[in-house]
Write a structure and sequence with these properties.
about 30% helix
Amino acid sequence: MTVDFSRLRALIVDDQMLVRTLVTQALRTMGFAPENLSQAVDGSFAK
């Protein structure tokens, strides 16, 4: 079964930039569109 992740949105929240970068790269590899990925250092900065 093929899953289309291109229309999904994700918010990556972690205080470590390396972790956020690795998760972002993994999600892009899975098919998430770059414009649908957001990052935040903690919950108070989340969009």
